[in-house]
Design a protein that fits this description.
Layout: H1 2-5, H2 10-29, E1 42-49, E2 52-59, H3 73-76, H4 83-99, H5 108-117, H6 132-141, H7 153-163
Antiparallel strand pairs: 1-2
């Protein structure tokens, strides 16, 4: 999806992330912390229902490890992965959807090192019309310290739902 369109409209981006939060939340409720939240592990499926066709996200069942571009600092340090690791990965996804690029680039080792120690480039450097609230949310999700991020994926979904009414001026 990102390869085709670059950045997404705020409305589309937020709707996708709300759906992803619901899927990840369901995984967390089952005691599973997905290990590979990145565009390649998320599929948009067309389903036919009583009211016609609709889209649904499907998440790959990988629980073994992810790509460094989407890994949290604690995963890179080989520490215990928990729901806050998924919050960080969602921050990378939001950053990529909003700017059309990853927050950190290079070879896998360079990317991993940047996740550990480099400041996240401001999304507004690449997307000047991003809303202040969305930029602040992305930066909070990408905090190096897990305790500084939102603490559960359900809270992220709620923040995104509340934000969805205020994004009409972006894209």
């Amino acid at each position: 999806l990102l390869a085709i369109s670059g950045t997404l409209s705020a409305h589309h981006m937020i709707n996708l992330m709300v759906d992803l939060c619901a899927i990840v939340h369901a995984s967390h409720e089952r005691g599973v912390v997905p290990a590979d939240l990145r565009p390649e592990s998320i599929t948009i499926v067309q389903l036919r229902g009583p009211d016609g066709w609709h889209q649904q996200l499907k998440l790959a069942d990988d629980t073994t490890g992810g790509h460094p571009a989407y890994m949290s600092p604690e995963e890179i340090r080989d520490e215990m992965r928990d729901v806050r690791s998924n919050i960080y990965s969602c921050g990378v996804l939001l950053y990529e959807m909003a700017t059309g690029r990853l927050p950190f680039e290079g070879d896998p080792n360079q990317i991993a090192e940047q996740h550990l120690s480099a400041a996240v480039p401001m999304p507004s450097n690449y997307t000047p019309d991003i809303t202040e609230d969305l930029e602040e949310l992305i930066l909070q999700l990408l905090e190096k310290e897990p305790t500084n991020r939102l603490q559960n994926i359900h809270a992220l979904g709620n923040v995104l739902r509340a934000m969805s009414d205020d994004v009409s001026s972006y894209h």
